[in-house]
Amino acid sequence: MDRVIARTLPLVPKPIVRKFSSRYIAGETPDEALATVASLNARGIRATLDILGEHIRNLDQANQTAAEYLHLLDEIARRKLDSTISIKLSHLGLKIDLLACLKIADGLVRRAKELNNFVRIDMEDSSCTTDTLQIYRDLRRDHSNVGVVIQAYLRRTVDDVAALEELTPNYRLCKGVYVEPAEISYRDMRVINRNYVYILEKLLRSGSYVGIATHDELMVWEALRIIRELKIPPTAYEFQMLLGVEEQLRDVIHKAGHNVRIYIPFGRDWYAYSVRRLRENPRLAGYVFKAMFK
Ligand code: FDA
Asked: Where are the domains of the chain?
């Protein structure tokens, strides 16, 4: 059923797709996205901004993306908003030139530091994992205001976390959204969930700041259990959710006194991006369809 929904989506007129996706995507322009940040901030909720788009064809496009992020950082500071930025390294040239990508990411983290802000590196499909973690390591040599994402569905994650332990990274922990082969990823949601909880406890015990990125009430319950048992202070973690998803759960967590950050995607590429992601992972189409009828 999810697959059918995902395949028929390109047949749906764009304005209709736009109407439904507006709940999950904060428009096309920085102004629209920054307005969404402001309205969440007014309710005490933090944000992180993602300019939509992934693999690019040349470094000019990477530099263009970086310029857009620099503008965002300046606007966040000028408008006194509580928002970080989330970047995808393939959007900054990861697949074209590793060194150039590092340099571009370094420029963003440097500017963010001057503005007292923070850069989160999203994790993409498994073809990017090793290089993304290497770039994260390289950036940490000069900067502390940068964090990375790890995915509980990857078999390698527990080793990656152990290898990075001496850096006490600032992490976002998510289940993982790309479709990966079984040799390298867990498929059974029960195993993914157990791995999520296992890694979360390890990270919190080792002193890492963790963005607990999930909409799954069971993962939230487990996280709260660990936080209570280990007496983890609110300065050491936050919950993170995607714009428009499970807002009731978000508000319950926030009202209970936990910090919450919302991931806000926006950009001109929203249509191509949404269709591509739904084709890649039809499960998402099922989520969206379910949410429409809720
Ligand atoms: P699960 O998949 O079990 O979903 C629980 C419930 O949440 C579903 O039943 C559904 O109701 C709802 N839900 C989840 N996702 C939804 C969606 N997209 N639309 C509508 N409803 C949805 N992944 C990655 O690989 N790299 C990354 O960098 C990031 N970054 C990231 C940031 C933030 C803030 C979040 C919240 C998530 C990510 N992710 C990610 C995506 C994450 O891997 C993805 O959300 C998971 O596939 C869904 O996992 P849940 O923990 O929500 O559980």
From this structure: 26-266
> Which pLDDT belongs to residue 276?
67
Residues 142, 35: Cα–Cα separation, whole Å: 32
Active site residues: 122, 172
Q: Which amino acid is at 240?
A: Q
Would you say the CB of residue 149 lies under 6 angstroms from ligand 1?
yes
Block mean pLDDT (10 aa), the chain, length 294: 70 74 89 98 98 88 97 98 97 97 98 98 97 98 98 98 98 96 97 98 98 98 98 98 95 98 93 72 72 64
What residue type is assigned to position 87 of the chain?
A: I
- CA 68, CA 54: separation in Å to the nearest integer? 14
Q: Which tokens in the block code for residue 153?
A: 């569905």
Ligand 1 centroid to residue 32 C-alpha, Å: 23
Q: How far apart are CA 239 and CA 62, in angstroms?
A: 30
Which of 190, 214, 237 to probe ligand 1 with, by most ligand atoms within 8 A of CB?
Answer: 214
Residue 168 is encoded by which pair of tokens?
């006490």
Rounded to two decimals, what is the model's pTM?
0.94
- Quote the pLDDT of residue 293: 65
Which atom of ligand 1 has the smallest separation from the CA of 213? 36
Q: If you ran DSSP here, which 8-state letter would residue 151 be given?
A: E
102 C-alpha vs ligand 1 centroid, how far in Å?
Answer: 27
Measure 85 CA to ligand 1 centroid, in angstroms.
18
* Residue 21 near ligand 1, beta carbon < 6 Å: no
Domain at 26-266: CATH architecture: Alpha-Beta Barrel (3.20)
Q: How far apart are CA 198 and CA 185, in angstroms?
A: 16
